[in-house]
UniProtKB/TrEMBL annotation:
Record-linked PROSITE patterns: G_PROTEIN_RECEP_F1_2
Name used for this protein in its record: G-protein coupled receptor 4
Domain annotation G-protein coupled receptors family 1 profile: ranges: 45-273
Subcellular location: Membrane
Organism name: Anabarilius grahami (Kanglang fish)
Recorded GO CC terms: plasma membrane
InterPro entries linked to this entry: GPCR_Rhodpsn (IPR000276), GPCR_Rhodpsn_7TM (IPR017452)
SUPFAM superfamilies named in the record: Family A G protein-coupled receptor-like (SSF81321)
Entry keyword Glycoprotein: yes
Transmembrane regions: 29-54, 66-85, 97-116, 144-165, 171-197, 218-239, 254-274
Biological processes per GO annotation: phospholipase C-activating G protein-coupled receptor signaling pathway; positive regulation of Rho protein signal transduction
Length: 286
C-alpha cells in the first residue's frame, strides 16, 4: 500500500485491506493470524465475561455496568475482525458493503473502547477522592445515562469515520486528539488518586485507615493498568499513521503490530474481571 492511500477512498485503518485477491505475503499472513487469534480467544472470553456479569447475583450488573459496556465493545471488535478477515481472504462483489462496514466499526475501535476505559478511571477517581459525589451518582440509572451518551458519541464517530478515512491526515489527527483527551483525563485521575493515597483522613483509626488505603491502592492499580493499556493500544496505531504521512508509504509491519496491540489490549479488562471474581485458576482473587 503506498501513500496514495491517504486520499484513496478504499483506504483502511490496518494493512493489507486493499487486496483484490488473496496474496500470501508475510504481512498478510501475520494479519490473518492476529485476526484469527482475536476470534478464537477474544469472542469466547468476552462472551463469558458478559454472561458472568449478567448472571451474577446481587448488585453485579449495576457495579459492573461500565465493564459490561466495554466488553460489548470488544465483541464489536470481534465482528470487525471477522469482516476484515473475510475481506482479506475472499474479496467479492460486495466489497463496497464490507468497506463501509469496516469504516463504520472503526469508530468503535478509536472512540468507544478508550471512552469506556476513561469512564472506568473517572469512576475510581470519584470513589477515592470524592466519595460523597460517588455515592450520590452510584445508582444504575446514572451509569446508564453515561453509557448512553458514550454510545451516542461513538455512533457519531462511526459515521464520521466513513467519510474521514478518505483522508489519512484528517483521520490521524482525529485519532490523536481523542487520544490526548482521554489520556489527559486518565492521567489526572491517576495523579489525584496517588495524592489521596499519600494522605489519611483526620481521626482515622488504624483498621479504618488500612481498609481505606487498600481501596485507594486498588483504585490506583486499576487506573494505572487502564492507562498503560490505552498507551499500548493507541500509541503504536498513531505512530503507524504518522509514519504513513512522513514516509509517504504504509509501513505495514508497524500497522500489523498496532493491530496486535489492539487485540491484546482488549483482553486486559476481561482478565482483570475474571481475576476479581476468582475465575482464573492461576491467579488468586484480590
Amino acid at each position: 500500500m503506498n501513500y496514495s492511500a491517504a486520499v484513496d477512498p478504499t483506504f483502511e485503518v490496518f494493512p493489507s485491506t486493499n487486496l483484490t485477491a488473496f496474496e500470501n505475503t508475510p504481512v498478510t499472513t501475520m494479519t490473518i493470524c492476529v485476526l484469527i487469534f482475536s476470534l478464537l480467544f477474544g469472542l469466547p472470553t468476552h462472551s463469558y465475561v458478559i454472561w458472568l456479569i449478567i448472571t451474577r447475583t446481587g448488585n453485579g450488573v449495576a457495579s459492573e455496568f461500565l465493564n459490561l459496556n466495554l466488553t460489548v465493545c470488544e465483541i464489536i471488535f470481534c465482528l470487525f475482525a471477522l469482516i476484515y478477515l473475510q475481506k482479506l481472504i475472499s474479496p467479492s462483489h460486495q466489497e463496497l458493503v464490507r468497506l463501509i462496514t469496516l469504516r463504520f466499526l472503526t469508530g468503535n475501535i478509536i472512540t468507544v473502547r478508550p471512552l469506556f476505559q476513561c469512564l472506568m478511571c473517572v469512576e475510581r477517581y470519584l470513589a477515592v477522592v470524592h466519595p460523597v459525589t460517588f455515592l450520590k451518582y452510584k445508582p444504575l440509572r446514572y451509569r446508564v445515562i453515561c453509557c448512553t451518551v458514550a454510545w451516542i458519541a461513538g455512533l457519531g464517530s462511526c459515521f464520521f469515520c466513513i467519510f474521514i478515512l478518505m483522508s489519512l491526515k484528517i483521520f490521524m489527527w482525529f485519532s490523536f486528539v481523542q487520544f490526548l483527551l482521554f489520556f489527559s483525563i486518565q492521567l489526572f485521575c491517576l495523579v489525584a488518586v496517588l495524592r489521596a493515597l499519600k494522605q489519611s483522613g483526620p481521626g482515622e483509626r488504624g483498621r479504618e485507615r488500612e481498609e481505606e488505603n487498600h481501596m485507594k491502592r486498588r483504585a490506583f492499580k486499576i487506573i494505572v493498568i487502564l492507562t498503560v493499556t490505552m498507551l499500548i493500544i493507541v500509541l503504536p496505531f498513531i505512530i503507524s499513521r504518522f509514519l504513513n504521512i512522513l514516509l509517504q508509504k504504509d509501513v505495514e509491519e508497524v500497522s500489523v503490530f498496532s493491530l496486535f496491540c489492539f487485540v491484546l489490549g482488549g483482553f486486559v479488562p476481561a482478565v482483570l474481571y475474571l481475576r476479581r471474581v476468582g475465575k482464573l485458576p492461576f491467579f488468586k482473587p484480590p
